[in-house]
Write a structure and sequence with these properties.
Length: about 150
């Protein structure tokens, strides 16, 4: 069975923050079914950049998150991206396995993914974070994960 790619949010998200605050790019959207998605088989893919990457605080827990709770910290899977990806001033595509995603506020329901958030804390000056083309890629289970017995 081929990999399945589902677009969660295609438009550009932007957020600007001063030193000591987080630039938070987030979007709520109608529930999207990703049946068969698990932490073990899933990858989140997105394009991102920062106007002044040197202003990002590498000592903070900067994250990318998906939820089925309609907002942050509810039925959420989150990944720390700082140190895993290095944003530049130009858009680049990044891919992160969900295998090490932390759960917050209960497990994500793959049948109803409806929120995305990426944030980065700013250590000095003011910086803007940009994100677009957020997707999930996974290997769906045959028959939607059901066990099928053939007589």
């Amino acid at each position: 069975m081929p990999l399945k790619t589902v677009t969660l949010y295609a438009s550009e998200l932007t957020a600007t923050a001063p030193a000591g605050a987080a630039a938070v790019c987030q979007a709520s959207f109608s529930a999207i079914s990703c049946l068969g998605l698990t932490k073990a088989n899933g990858t989140i893919i997105f394009e991102a950049k920062c106007d002044v990457p040197a202003y990002l605080d590498s000592n903070k827990d900067n994250q990318v998150e998906i939820t089925s709770g309609g907002g942050p910290d509810t039925n959420e899977w989150g990944l720390t991206w700082m140190g895993t990806i290095n944003l530049t001033t130009s858009y680049a595509e990044y891919s992160m396995s969900l295998a090490n995603a932390a759960t917050s506020g209960g497990e994500l329901n793959p049948a109803g993914v409806n929120f995305f958030r990426m944030y980065g804390f700013i250590k000095t000056g003011t910086a803007t974070l940009f994100v677009r083309n957020v997707r999930l890629r996974y290997m769906p289970k045959p028959y939607g994960g059901l066990t099928v017995q053939i007589p």
